[in-house]
Write a structure and sequence with these properties.
CATH superfamily of the largest domain: Type I PLP-dependent aspartate aminotransferase-like (Major domain)
Structural class: alpha/beta
Shape: globular
Order of helices and strands: HHEHEHEHEHEEEEEHHHHEEEHHHEH
CATH architecture of the largest domain: 3-Layer(aba) Sandwich
Distance between the termini: 21 Å
Radius of gyration: 21 Å
Number of helices: 14
CATH topology of the largest domain: Aspartate Aminotransferase, domain 2
Bound molecules: pyridoxal-5'-phosphate
Amino acid sequence: MNIPITKTVFGDEEKEAMVKPLETGWIVQGPYVSEFQEMFSEFTSAKYSHATSSCTTALHLGLESMEIKKGDKVIVPSFTYVASANAVEYTGAEVVFCDINLKTFNIDETKLEDLIKNDLSIKAIMPVHLFGLCANMPDIMKLANKYNLKVIEDSACGFDSWIDGKHSGTFGDVGCFSFHPRKSICTGEGGMLITNDDNLAIKVSQLKDHGASKSDLQRHREKGGSLLPDFTMRGYNYRMTDIQGALGVCQMNKKEYIMDGRRKVASNYDDALSMLPQLITPFVPSQYIHAYQSYVCIFTDGEDISNLTKEQIDKLNIKRNIFMEKLEEKNIATRQGTHAVHTLGYYKDKNNFKDEDFLNAYAADRLSITLPVYPDMKKEEFDYVISNIKEALI
Ligand SMILES: Cc1ncc(COP(=O)(O)O)c(C=O)c1O
């Protein structure tokens, strides 16, 4: 058996829809992108949705539309995919890392106020809804309002993640999503920025399209379409193609199947792994709905990890890696959850960081393990993963 870390859910609908832009000639953002955006707004209850070429470009657009610039600072969790921090760097602003809560893998909101209160150059917070679990947005929004900070939610993994009936990405000023193949719904590459703010929405739609005051689709639908519009901003080309838009529409049409399937596998893992002292399964606070973009456990080898030290993390890391290798030998793909960005060469060298500067992020990097999840996972495949996990832990 060969078990990948995840699998996209593409069928005949996607194949048929993708051909249509080729036939009509609307290859760049056009009718399918519009439809995808409308469906996304309806699902998340966001007033505006803007499709982009990726989540990274959506994050850049979000920050730039909020006028984050050189001299400003933005708080980012130290355990996230590197793109969250890179997007801040694109604007010239500085990244200020904040450690995470190892239970949720998300930014530790109790550490935020100490970072914010004495630093006037901090202008925004970027909570990340890692692996499909929302960060503590109610508390983060209270702090943001108290200190008048902008909030850009990195919801790359947060499609169908909720707190008390509110979708991720709708708490702050903007929310950004990814449709990379590791994410729950997929358009190849692709992203979406959502906002309820009228002014930000206008800026984002222009910035993603070279700064044009009118999109091609609008221009072609109106009289006088032979003349180019004014370009009132220095923009980018961060548009999504209509071929990707077609994929997005099809994926939205099957989102229940995809998400129910992912949640079923996650719940089966919860049941099958809860008795194993070597692994801590994902924690879900009450009122939160986890999307399980990834099912990420912490490898403890049965040890008490309530007072972790760097030495204990490093020792357990060796064992975690052996555990992952054993599964790889059985053709079962696993991954570390994501990385501690302060330990990556660029950020480490720039700031002279030590691994233990953000100890929980370091622990998450060294001890996390993502297990395979995909909606079409068969019972035999699931059972094969579980029996090999048990064997590898002996
Ligand atoms: C937390 C997080 N932020 C940002 C990104 C970047 O998304 P994209 O690949 O769509 O640019 C990812 C992708 O893995 C991610 O996991």
